[in-house]
Amino acid sequence: MSCPICQHQSSTPLLSLSNYPVYQHPMIAPVEIPLPHVLDLEYVICDSCGHGYQNEFDRGILENIYKQHYYTPSPDNVGVVFRNEFIDFFKENIKVSPSASIFEVGCSSGDVLAALQKEYPQYLLKAIEPNIETALVAKNKGFDVQHEFFTQAYTNTLNTSVDIIYSRHVIEHIFDFADFFSAADNISHHNSQLILETPSLDWSAEHGSVMPFHVEHVHVFSERSLVSLAGRYGWYKNKSIVTSSGNLIVIFIRQENHFVLPPAPENFIRIQNRHTELISEAQQFCQDKNVVFWGAGSGAITLLALSQVTPEYIVDGNPNKTGKFFCGLDKSIGYAPNIISELVRQGKDIEMMMVISSSFFIEITQELMKLGWRGDIYSPYQNKT
User: Fold this and answer.
1) What are the residues whose beta carbons fall under 8 Å from the beta carbon of 123, sequence distance 6 or more?
2) What's the rounded mean pLDDT across residues 241-266?
3) pTM passes above 0.85
4) Could you state, in order of their start, the residue ranges of all structural domains in the chain?
């Protein structure tokens, strides 16, 4: 397969994930999920533009996940680091008229829309979201949200143009870039700005992070590959940042800027090495201990599947996940504050191992301290450098 960004024919193996779980998010049981439940994933990196991508993927499986088995809506105070970093970047770098119109591609449950509305109550906010559950939550918050995929065919029907288009953690899922950017063209004008946020391959290579790699992420972008892609469709980099959490955010404009493309990532061998270390490390830390996993998302199901660790509890700070199950596991998810408080009250926490199976390890660690946790803590996805 040639590079989906620059069509270069030469690539280098980046990361191999064997027997990897397909369904990353908890669901209501019993739910009949068609096979396969696991896949072998092979990521390569383009030798020219430094783009990471899956050699093969099943579009039908992924589209069904996005519609039916995707992100669980969470309260406003859970998992806020990514959102806050984006809002801070937006406030610092986006200057438009008080009557600006904004369109979010993939708004999930509308948490960023709510934050923008609070900061800019005069803005006209609209959005699109393909997942049934989260689109309904965003609508119930009072936002104009359409339950659709962002396609040229859909935006052909809108007959509107907006000042700002943004998408957070969407572009890495896209199958057809030409269709995505045609859809953006349909609702933009000469002075529109396009903001894309996505996990940074440069950051992952530097820190040896495996967090961006799972079945739903067809692509993992370097800044070089994202800027190259947008430039093909007439969108040019204006400003960019890599957040402390490892997310790349780039503002694109219609006016061509002349700048040197950033280099491709180096030392990406650290990603495969870190993956191997992660499995061995989890088995070592959790051996002969009663284990609690805090974080019922892609990080948890990955660690559970690959390390074969069997936790006594799987918990999450999002109450909407309480009572749900991961595909293939018969252990239900508990509400973290309640479970942890009870373990502390009984004194059981002292002899237990807390595995923070989430990228929100700082938030979870702070919450653990508030709850009085005294046992060991292992945070496999924390930056190790």
Assistant:
1) 99, 100, 101, 102, 116, 117
2) 90
3) yes
4) 269-378
